[in-house]
Amino acid sequence: MAAQPQTITAVATTSNMNRDFVYYTAGFYVQDDYRVLPRLTLNLGLRYEFNTVPREKSGKEYRFTSILTQTTTTQGPVVQNYSLHNFSPRVGFAWDIFGHGATAVRGGAGIFYDIAGIGGALVHDTIGTPPLSVSNSITYTAPYTNSFNTPLFPPGVSAAVLNLDTLDYNATQPHMYQWNLSIEQRLPAGMTLTVGYVGSRGLHLWNSPNLNIRNPVVTNGIPYWAPPAPGPITDRKLPQFGTINFVTTNSSSHYNSLQVGLSKRLSKGLQFQSSYTWSRALDYGQGQLTSNDPSTVNMVSPY
User: Over the range 25-51, which residues count as b (16 or more CB within 10 Å of their CB) and which as e?
Assistant: First the structure.
């Protein structure tokens, strides 16, 4: 059975969603290996990569520098450039414990910056950032039907009470810390056993929360979000707007894993490699920059 949409969002045909954002990226790195001791080798590196400030070629760029206090947008770059601080150190080591090459400990850590995600974030600036584009939406309540009233922009509706879909001008730079530590043991018959730990921590990842959520009703000290009554919702943080899809960098991720591998090099016509991973991942922003929710349908609606 096909998914039934619960929310239909429309962008007015008078909106101008065409953008030509231009920015450049560059990356540089240095790396070297140092044999500190006969049985210990260090690998050190430093990478620096950044992008220039995204600018719209025709000046079609408006932003809220402080969305909770501003009532209108100002013209200028839609996001600050935090990538100029993207220095990424890397360190790794390999230690032959007993000196005969049968047992080794390896490890490494580094910082990695995501400068490619800015492209997906810029798309949201085109959907609902005044004065160039506005959107409106209707939400079904059970029982759901396949019919709805059009147009979604009734005559006389003011853009001041419509939805926003905009980019956080103060968004920071998404980045991730990664680290690993493993023990490698040579076994008889040309086999090698590897047991290791791999982890990562993502910070300031892209996310698209609704900034204008309704204020809760507090009963006996417990917040409660009651179902909205029919008609305009007046108990939002910013009652002059509806939903505010605010593309920002307030998400994070965690990953921890135990990884075991057993391999045998080719001998006497036999070769194999097997691995097992036991892991746990927490990601609070996965898929937030795409319309991958079947309960939402986007469309263009005339006034």
Answer: eeeeeeeeeeeeeeeebeeebebbbbb
Burial class (CB in 10 A: 0-12, 13-18, 19+), 12: buried
Distance (Å, rounded) from C-alpha 257 to C-alpha 298?
A: 38
205-225: pLDDT as tens digits: 998 888 887 777 777 888 776
Cα–Cα distance, 137 to 207 (Å, whole number):
21
β-strands 296-301, 7-12 pairing: parallel
Calpha distance 46→57 (Å, rounded): 34
Task: Give dist(CA 108, CA 234) in Å, integer.
Answer: 53
Distance separating alpha carbons of residues 101 and 112, to the nearest angstrom:
31
pLDDT at 297: 38
User: Cα(254)–Cα(283) distance, rounded to whole angstroms?
Assistant: 7
Q: pTM for the whole thing?
A: 0.79
3-state secondary structure of 189: helix
